[in-house]
Protein backbone atom coordinates (compact mmCIF):
# COMPACT_ATOMS: atom_id res chain seq x y z
CA UNK A 1 0.00 0.00 0.00
CA UNK A 2 1.34 3.41 -0.99
CA UNK A 3 2.11 5.76 1.88
CA UNK A 4 2.70 8.66 -0.51
CA UNK A 5 0.49 9.16 -3.56
CA UNK A 6 0.75 12.13 -5.91
CA UNK A 7 -1.74 12.49 -8.76
CA UNK A 8 -1.52 14.98 -11.62
CA UNK A 9 0.29 17.56 -9.53
CA UNK A 10 0.51 21.03 -11.08
CA UNK A 11 2.19 24.11 -9.64
CA UNK A 12 2.11 27.49 -11.33
CA UNK A 13 3.41 30.89 -10.27
CA UNK A 14 2.35 34.33 -11.53
CA UNK A 15 4.83 35.94 -13.93
CA UNK A 16 4.89 39.20 -15.95
CA UNK A 17 4.18 37.34 -19.19
CA UNK A 18 1.49 35.13 -17.62
CA UNK A 19 1.53 32.14 -15.30
CA UNK A 20 4.71 30.06 -15.11
CA UNK A 21 4.18 26.29 -14.84
CA UNK A 22 6.92 24.68 -12.75
CA UNK A 23 5.33 21.26 -12.18
CA UNK A 24 3.17 19.89 -14.96
CA UNK A 25 1.00 16.89 -14.05
CA UNK A 26 3.39 14.86 -11.89
CA UNK A 27 2.20 11.48 -10.56
CA UNK A 28 4.12 9.26 -8.15
CA UNK A 29 3.54 6.43 -5.68
CA UNK A 30 5.92 5.38 -2.91
CA UNK A 31 5.41 2.65 -0.32
CA UNK A 32 6.88 2.09 3.12
CA UNK A 33 10.69 1.96 2.97
CA UNK A 34 10.99 3.22 -0.62
CA UNK A 35 13.98 5.47 -1.38
CA UNK A 36 13.90 7.92 -4.29
CA UNK A 37 16.52 10.41 -5.48
CA UNK A 38 15.32 13.33 -7.61
CA UNK A 39 17.83 15.10 -9.84
CA UNK A 40 17.56 17.91 -12.37
CA UNK A 41 19.05 21.28 -13.34
CA UNK A 42 18.93 24.26 -11.00
CA UNK A 43 15.62 26.07 -11.10
CA UNK A 44 13.66 23.12 -12.53
CA UNK A 45 11.34 22.87 -9.50
CA UNK A 46 12.93 20.14 -7.40
CA UNK A 47 12.67 22.09 -4.15
CA UNK A 48 9.14 23.23 -5.04
CA UNK A 49 8.10 19.60 -5.46
CA UNK A 50 9.74 18.67 -2.16
CA UNK A 51 8.03 21.57 -0.37
CA UNK A 52 4.62 20.45 -1.66
CA UNK A 53 5.30 16.87 -0.56
CA UNK A 54 6.20 18.30 2.84
CA UNK A 55 3.05 20.48 2.95
CA UNK A 56 5.15 23.65 3.15
CA UNK A 57 3.56 24.82 -0.12
CA UNK A 58 0.22 24.00 -1.77
CA UNK A 59 -0.26 22.63 -5.28
CA UNK A 60 -2.20 24.63 -7.85
CA UNK A 61 -3.99 21.44 -8.86
CA UNK A 62 -3.71 17.73 -8.15
CA UNK A 63 -3.75 15.46 -5.13
CA UNK A 64 -1.19 14.64 -2.45
CA UNK A 65 -2.03 11.78 -0.08
CA UNK A 66 0.20 10.83 2.86
CA UNK A 67 -0.90 7.72 4.76
CA UNK A 68 -4.16 7.90 2.74
CA UNK A 69 -4.88 11.39 4.04
CA UNK A 70 -5.02 14.67 2.12
CA UNK A 71 -3.15 17.09 4.41
CA UNK A 72 -4.25 20.13 2.40
CA UNK A 73 -7.87 19.46 3.43
CA UNK A 74 -6.91 20.09 7.07
CA UNK A 75 -7.30 23.47 8.81
CA UNK A 76 -3.96 25.22 9.50
CA UNK A 77 -3.47 24.05 13.14
CA UNK A 78 -4.26 20.44 12.20
CA UNK A 79 -1.99 20.68 9.15
CA UNK A 80 0.88 21.89 11.35
CA UNK A 81 0.35 18.91 13.69
CA UNK A 82 0.19 16.54 10.73
CA UNK A 83 3.45 17.91 9.33
CA UNK A 84 5.16 17.69 12.70
CA UNK A 85 4.11 14.09 13.29
CA UNK A 86 4.32 12.56 9.81
CA UNK A 87 7.12 14.39 7.96
CA UNK A 88 10.81 14.84 8.71
CA UNK A 89 12.92 17.49 6.97
CA UNK A 90 16.67 17.67 6.32
CA UNK A 91 18.08 20.68 4.48
CA UNK A 92 21.49 21.59 3.08
CA UNK A 93 21.93 23.96 6.01
CA UNK A 94 21.48 21.88 9.16
CA UNK A 95 19.27 24.65 10.70
CA UNK A 96 20.33 23.82 14.27
CA UNK A 97 19.69 26.42 16.97
CA UNK A 98 23.12 27.60 18.14
CA UNK A 99 22.14 28.12 21.78
CA UNK A 100 20.92 24.53 22.22
CA UNK A 101 22.89 21.33 22.71
CA UNK A 102 22.83 18.51 20.16
CA UNK A 103 20.28 16.59 22.24
CA UNK A 104 18.09 19.67 22.75
CA UNK A 105 18.10 20.30 19.00
CA UNK A 106 17.04 16.71 18.35
CA UNK A 107 14.13 17.08 20.78
CA UNK A 108 12.84 20.37 19.32
CA UNK A 109 10.07 18.81 17.14
CA UNK A 110 8.61 17.12 20.23
CA UNK A 111 7.97 20.55 21.75
CA UNK A 112 5.55 21.20 18.89
CA UNK A 113 3.33 18.51 20.42
CA UNK A 114 3.92 18.49 24.19
CA UNK A 115 6.48 18.86 26.93
CA UNK A 116 9.44 16.51 26.60
CA UNK A 117 8.84 13.25 28.47
CA UNK A 118 11.34 10.70 29.73
CA UNK A 119 10.50 8.45 26.76
CA UNK A 120 11.26 11.33 24.38
CA UNK A 121 14.57 11.96 26.10
CA UNK A 122 15.46 8.28 25.81
CA UNK A 123 14.54 8.21 22.11
CA UNK A 124 16.61 11.35 21.46
CA UNK A 125 19.61 9.69 23.08
CA UNK A 126 19.02 6.51 21.09
CA UNK A 127 18.94 8.48 17.84
CA UNK A 128 22.13 10.33 18.72
CA UNK A 129 23.69 6.96 19.46
CA UNK A 130 22.49 5.67 16.08
CA UNK A 131 24.17 8.60 14.30
CA UNK A 132 27.28 7.99 16.45
CA UNK A 133 27.04 11.26 18.37
CA UNK A 134 25.82 10.28 21.82
CA UNK A 135 29.15 11.33 23.43
CA UNK A 136 28.56 14.79 21.89
CA UNK A 137 24.97 15.14 23.17
CA UNK A 138 25.83 18.10 25.43
CA UNK A 139 27.85 19.95 22.75
CA UNK A 140 26.46 22.98 20.95
CA UNK A 141 26.57 23.27 17.12
CA UNK A 142 29.64 25.53 17.21
CA UNK A 143 31.52 22.67 18.88
CA UNK A 144 30.61 20.17 16.15
CA UNK A 145 32.01 19.63 12.67
CA UNK A 146 29.87 20.17 9.56
CA UNK A 147 29.28 16.45 9.17
CA UNK A 148 28.36 16.10 12.85
CA UNK A 149 25.88 18.97 12.62
CA UNK A 150 24.20 17.34 9.64
CA UNK A 151 23.97 14.03 11.51
CA UNK A 152 22.26 15.85 14.39
CA UNK A 153 19.80 17.20 11.79
CA UNK A 154 19.11 13.63 10.63
CA UNK A 155 18.38 12.55 14.21
CA UNK A 156 16.09 15.56 14.70
CA UNK A 157 14.14 14.68 11.53
CA UNK A 158 13.49 11.19 12.91
CA UNK A 159 12.50 12.02 16.50
CA UNK A 160 8.73 11.91 15.76
CA UNK A 161 9.04 8.67 13.73
CA UNK A 162 7.78 10.21 10.47
CA UNK A 163 6.23 8.29 7.59
CA UNK A 164 8.07 10.53 5.12
CA UNK A 165 11.65 11.81 5.27
CA UNK A 166 12.50 14.65 2.86
CA UNK A 167 16.10 15.69 2.23
CA UNK A 168 16.95 18.79 0.16
CA UNK A 169 20.63 18.71 -0.88
CA UNK A 170 21.61 17.05 2.43
CA UNK A 171 25.26 16.64 1.40
CA UNK A 172 25.62 19.83 -0.64
CA UNK A 173 27.76 21.66 1.92
CA UNK A 174 29.88 18.67 3.00
CA UNK A 175 33.24 17.38 1.84
CA UNK A 176 33.43 14.02 0.08
CA UNK A 177 34.08 11.96 3.22
CA UNK A 178 31.27 13.53 5.24
CA UNK A 179 28.92 13.45 2.24
CA UNK A 180 29.39 9.69 1.94
CA UNK A 181 28.89 9.25 5.69
CA UNK A 182 25.64 11.22 5.72
CA UNK A 183 24.44 9.41 2.59
CA UNK A 184 25.13 6.06 4.27
CA UNK A 185 23.25 7.22 7.35
CA UNK A 186 20.15 8.38 5.46
CA UNK A 187 19.86 5.21 3.41
CA UNK A 188 20.55 2.86 6.33
CA UNK A 189 18.20 4.51 8.81
CA UNK A 190 15.29 4.92 6.38
CA UNK A 191 15.67 1.25 5.43
CA UNK A 192 15.78 0.11 9.06
CA UNK A 193 12.82 2.28 10.11
CA UNK A 194 10.73 1.66 7.01
CA UNK A 195 10.46 5.39 6.35
CA UNK A 196 10.00 6.72 2.82
CA UNK A 197 13.10 8.71 1.87
CA UNK A 198 13.01 11.30 -0.92
CA UNK A 199 16.23 13.15 -1.61
CA UNK A 200 16.69 16.10 -3.97
CA UNK A 201 20.32 16.34 -4.99
CA UNK A 202 22.77 17.64 -7.58
CA UNK A 203 25.19 14.89 -6.58
CA UNK A 204 25.25 12.08 -9.15
CA UNK A 205 27.33 10.06 -6.67
CA UNK A 206 24.59 10.23 -4.03
CA UNK A 207 21.73 9.71 -6.49
CA UNK A 208 23.30 6.57 -7.92
CA UNK A 209 23.15 4.92 -4.50
CA UNK A 210 19.34 5.14 -4.38
CA UNK A 211 17.30 2.15 -5.61
CA UNK A 212 14.90 4.55 -7.37
CA UNK A 213 15.94 7.66 -9.30
CA UNK A 214 13.95 10.25 -11.23
CA UNK A 215 14.81 13.28 -13.38
CA UNK A 216 12.77 16.48 -13.10
CA UNK A 217 12.87 18.53 -16.28
CA UNK A 218 10.39 20.79 -18.09
CA UNK A 219 7.93 20.25 -15.26
CA UNK A 220 7.83 16.47 -15.67
CA UNK A 221 9.22 13.76 -13.41
CA UNK A 222 10.63 10.78 -15.32
CA UNK A 223 11.78 7.79 -13.30
CA UNK A 224 14.76 5.76 -14.51
CA UNK A 225 14.03 2.18 -15.49
Proportion in β-strands: 25-35%
Q: What is the assigned CATH homologous superfamily? A: P-loop containing nucleotide triphosphate hydrolases
What would the average pLDDT be, to the nearest integer? Answer: 91
Q: What number of structural domains do the residues give?
A: 1
Q: What's this, in brief?
A:
The chain has helices at 46-53, 76-86, 102-111, 118-130, 146-158, 176-193, 204-207; strands spanning 2-13, 20-31, 35-39, 61-66, 87-91, 164-168, 196-200, 212-217, 220-223. The chain has 225 residues and is an alpha/beta fold.
Summary tags:
27% strand; Rossmann fold; 6-stranded mixed sheet; alpha/beta; 3-stranded antiparallel sheet; 34% helix; 225 residues
Can you describe this structure?
The radius of gyration is 17 Å and the shape is globular. The chain has helices at residues 46-53, 76-86, 102-111, 118-130, 146-158, 176-193, 204-207, and strands at residues 2-13, 20-31, 35-39, 61-66, 87-91, 164-168, 196-200, 212-217, 220-223. Helix 4 crosses helix 5. The chain starts with a strand and ends with a strand. Strands 5-6-7-3-8-9 form a six-stranded mixed sheet, with helices on both faces. A three-stranded antiparallel sheet has the order 2-1-4, covered by helices on one side. With 225 residues, the protein is an alpha/beta fold.
Amino acid sequence: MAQLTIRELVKTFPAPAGSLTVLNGISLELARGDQLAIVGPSGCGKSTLLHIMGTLDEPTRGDVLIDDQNPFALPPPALARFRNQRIGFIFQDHCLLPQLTALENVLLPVLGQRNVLSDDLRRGQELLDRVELLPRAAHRPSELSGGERQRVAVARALICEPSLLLADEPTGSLDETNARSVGDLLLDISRQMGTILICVTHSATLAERFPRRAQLTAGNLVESQ
